[in-house]
Write a structure and sequence with these properties.
single chain; 13% strand; two-stranded parallel ribbon; queuosine biosynthesis; 4-stranded antiparallel β-sheet; Epoxyqueuosine reductase; alpha+beta
């Protein structure tokens, strides 16, 4: 096999491989310290917007500098993978965030990234690096924005004009010099749809989300009982929340994904509120065997359902 040479060709190859593997888009940034993000992250942590997500306090330096995660890192390859479903839940049901309709994205994306790294080594030569899917101290939205894949919206999600925001973000951090992309411009304008629609007023200022007020935090991250004062504010969300994305005008351009492993679990589609209330642990384990919903465990999901239907 003839190895590819030159920075420009390497970059073109990486972007074509990303497309072949089913990624929505690919952008490349020069690895280095994220100067603008440092004070923003520090302020967010000081305001305790991470709540009980204490892991956010760890590895502060590594979150800001990928060269501390990968020796001699030169480039951050940011990737988007669409998860927007073609079928939606029964309207008379407790709601689940769309990213959890299919199989757990961590496993799906990690397999793709493993193949990606192998392909880079086969075609370019020996390249060292690591793959990341939101389970390591990497500021994925910051890197995706830096590489021109979108801009950080007022709901703090990455937004793109062509496809909205219903996608996962992943990275390859590698020790290979490449051609770098440039950040795009902000297209939120004067729109405040996400801020106005947030059921718990978690978007405390444009571009700032108090994670400890977010429905996703309460229904997934929080391990203890949901505070009484949140009663009546969850709009039937029992796992995650998509409200700020659902109302975003740019998501009018969302198109259904083409990843078979993200195809909607048919049981999930047909479940009514009564079905959820009566779900047994055995059914939970069988139906959500490879689902992100497993993260709450059976007891956590029952806690969320009980909170939604209680009248205390």
């Amino acid at each position: 096999m003839t190895l590819i040479s030159q920075k420009s060709d390497h970059s073109k190859f990486i972007k074509s491989e990303a497309k072949r593997l089913g990624f929505l888009s690919c952008g490349i940034s020069k690895a280095g310290f994220l100067e603008e993000e440092a004070p923003r992250l520090e302020k967010w942590l000081n305001n305790n917007y991470h709540g009980q997500m204490t892991y956010m306090e760890n590895n502060f330096d590594k979150r800001l500098d990928p060269t501390l995660l990968v020796d001699d890192a030169k480039s951050v390859v940011s990737l988007l993978l669409n998860y927007y479903p073609s079928e939606m839940q029964n309207e008379e049901s407790f709601k689940i965030s769309k990213y959890a309709y299919g199989q757990d994205y961590h496993f799906v994306i990690k397999e793709k990234l493993k193949e990606f790294l192998h392909s880079i080594n086969e075609n370019i030569g020996e390249v060292s690096g690591r793959a990341f899917v939101d389970s390591a101290p990497v500021l994925d939205k910051a890197w995706a924005a830096k590489s021109g894949l979108g801009w950080r919206g007022k709901n703090s999600n990455l937004l793109t004009q062509k496809v909205g925001s219903f996608y996962f973000i992943a990275e390859l951090i590698i020790d290979l010099d490449l051609e770098y992309d440039h950040a795009t411009t902000d297209h939120c304008g004067s729109c405040t749809a996400c801020i106005d629609a947030c059921p718990t007023q978690a978007i405390v200022a444009p571009y700032v989300v108090d994670g400890s007020k977010c429905i996703s935090y309460f229904t997934i991250e929080l391990k203890e009982n949901i505070p009484y004062e949140m009663k009546g504010q969850f709009d039937d969300w029992m796992f995650g929340c998509d409200t700020c994305q659902d109302v975003c005008p740019w998501n009018r351009f969302s198109k259904p994904h083409s990843e078979p492993l993200f195809n909607t679990n048919q049981d999930l589609l047909s479940f009514t509120k009564k079905d959820w209330e009566e779900i047994t642990e055995e059914t939970f384990r069988a139906v959500f065997k490879n689902s992100p919903i497993k993260r709450t465990k059976y007891e956590g999901l029952k806690r969320n359902i009980t909170f939604l239907k209680s009248t205390f």
